[in-house]
Amino acid sequence: MGRLNLTVATWDYDRVRALMDGRVKIEGCEINYIPIPVEEVFHRAYFHTEFDIAEIGFSPFLIALSRGIAPYTAVPAFLSRTFRHSAVYIRTDRGIEGPADLKGRRVGVPEYQMSAVLWFRGVLKDEHGIEAADVNWVQAGLEQAGRADKFPLNLPDGFPLEAAPAGRSLSAMLADGEVDALMSARAPSCFIEGHPKVRRLFPDFRTEEKAYFRRTGIFPIMHAVGIRNELVAEHPWLPASVFKAFSAAKKIADAEFREVAALKIGLPWLAAELESTIETMGADFWPYGVAPNRVTLEAMARYSFEQGLAIRRLTPEEMFAPTTLDETRV
User: Fold this and answer.
1) Would you kindly state where each structural domain of the chain is located, as residue ranges?
2) In this predicted model, what pLDDT tens digit does every residue of 84-124 receive, in sequence order?
3) Phi and psi of 248, rounded to 5°?
4) Which pLDDT tens digit goes with each residue over 187-223?
5) ∠ at Cα 165 (177, 175), nearest 5°?
6) Secondary structure element (H or E) that encloses residue 40, with its range
7) 273 — phi, psi (to 5°)?
8) Residue 128: is it exposed, middle or buried by C-beta count within 10 angstroms (0-12/13-18/19+)?
9) What is the signed CA dihedral for 239, 12, 120, 56, rounded to 10 degrees?
């Protein structure tokens, strides 16, 4: 039997590079690896199912899975994880001093269902008592008009979500005072360019994020890896092999940035940063798999259901191919 020829698409992370350059193989497969920005991967994966294996936004995946329409089967290799306290930008002339002041405000989001926004809405509720319906949401592309959610939303009638005016981007709306704040995984250009009335909600976001992790044990998951359902049905061995390969690639990346005698990564204080991260989060601070991520996965499932996105509350075991829920031990 010949080897499977598969196309893989993710962003160019250190933790996948050993797969990209061939140091790590997916057992039984020959791969064509396409490194492209995540927004393009998501669009082409969710709307056209172009790739055999793809990086997938985890919030849209949970929505689709709960509705029985997910085109991909997930494996618990979490390519992107980020605390999102740094991702909220506000007008300085609206009296917004903290998260509680977002109640009743107009807050822009590139997509209502995107993982970064899901997580911060969860933080608003759990940490500050603000429900999703307490905020007036405005949806538009961050820098370009016309961006849309990946799946239709089933929000209650009268829910405060509106599309931005035609031709308007969120960055322009924040700069011009048409929204009071915005949430975005990428910094808006108005902030990068130093708009005098735009700043982060949490200027000292690192302190906030470390405190959040210490309180909750949550390191937010943004993206996972998905395999086309048809391939999984035809080759049931594939999810475990894909998970094994992505895990091996991450292990190589971990070893490389821990080599501090001669820095492979161009950050002068990398060793100090690594020590600080380990002190806060432990030695395995970016774990793959279900067991070490259960608290984070359960929180994400709860947020998706509470916020009217997933139609039911999923369990971590439902989210992933069954063969990736445990590992072989010798």
Assistant:
1) 4-81+220-324, 85-216
2) 999 999 999 999 999 999 999 999 999 999 999 999 999 99
3) -65, -40
4) 999 999 999 999 999 999 999 999 999 999 999 999 9
5) 20
6) helix 38-48
7) -65, -45
8) middle
9) -30
Tokens of 133: 């319906």
**Residue located via tokens 């050993």:** 18
The three-class DSSP label of residue 119 is helix
Half-sphere exposure (Cβ direction) of 304: Cα atoms closer than 13 Å:
31
Instruction: Determine the topology of domain 85-216 in CATH.
Output: D-Maltodextrin-Binding Protein; domain 2 (3.40.190)
Query: Which residue blocks in 97-237 are alpha helix, DSSP H?
Result: 115-128, 170-175, 189-192, 205-216, 229-234
**Angle formed by the axes of helices 58-67 and 115-128, nearest 10°:** 90
pTM for the full predicted model: 0.94
Measuring CA to CA, how many Å separate 123 from each of 79, 139, 155, 303?
22, 20, 20, 9
Could you tell me the end-to-end alpha-carbon distance of the chain, in angstroms, rounded to an integer?
A: 28
Residues whose CB is less than 8 angstroms from the CB of residue 40 and which lie 6 or more positions away in sequence, other chains included: none
Distances (CA, A) of 236 to 58, 228, 265, 323: 22, 12, 38, 8
**Over 255-273, what HEC string results?**
HHHCCCCCCCCCCCCHHHH
At the topology level of CATH, where does 4-81+220-324 sit? Answer: D-Maltodextrin-Binding Protein; domain 2 (3.40.190)
Which residues have C-beta within 8 Å of that of residue 11, sequence separation ≥ 6?
Answer: 35, 36, 37, 38, 41, 55, 79, 80
What value, to the nearest 5°, has the Cα angle with vertex 152 and ends 148 and 155?
110
Name 9's bridge partners: 34, 54
